[in-house]
Amino acid sequence: MSAHKTTTTLHHLVALLSRESDQLLLEQLGIGLSQYKILTTLHEHPHVQQRAIAAALGQTEASISRQIKLLKEKGMLVSPRNPINRREHIADLTARGLRIIEAAEAILDNYHRTFFSNLNQKQHKQLDELLGSIHKSVCQLQH
Description:
This protein is mostly helical and 143 residues long. It has helices at residues 3-29, 33-44, 50-57, 61-73, 95-116, 121-142; strands at residues 48-49, 77-78, 90-93. A three-stranded antiparallel beta sheet has the order 1-3-2. The protein is globular. 13% of the residues are buried.
């Protein structure tokens, strides 16, 4: 398979999985995939600025700001001003935000499990290693 064909297949797969994951989260939890990604980023990196979230997710600060506003309205996070720089806001999860992350992970794990059930343990490990290697290479190019 050529690199172009592989990349095209990966793009298509990501688009399909993202669209379905977004729909599942919206139906069952009232949040979209992009909001889930923000919540998980905050869980992994607490007290982070919106600019850092945008950089980590490859999105604009404006889009992150809009999503954070929605998540604040839903009681999933707080975003007080940075005491060092009053123009900046630092986002933090609430207990509700943590519960939503856990629920979303269970929903997505259950959904994605069906795609990997036909792989044996060795194939699953190989897939993880290959994707990890590709991910590492792409991330190194970005920095």
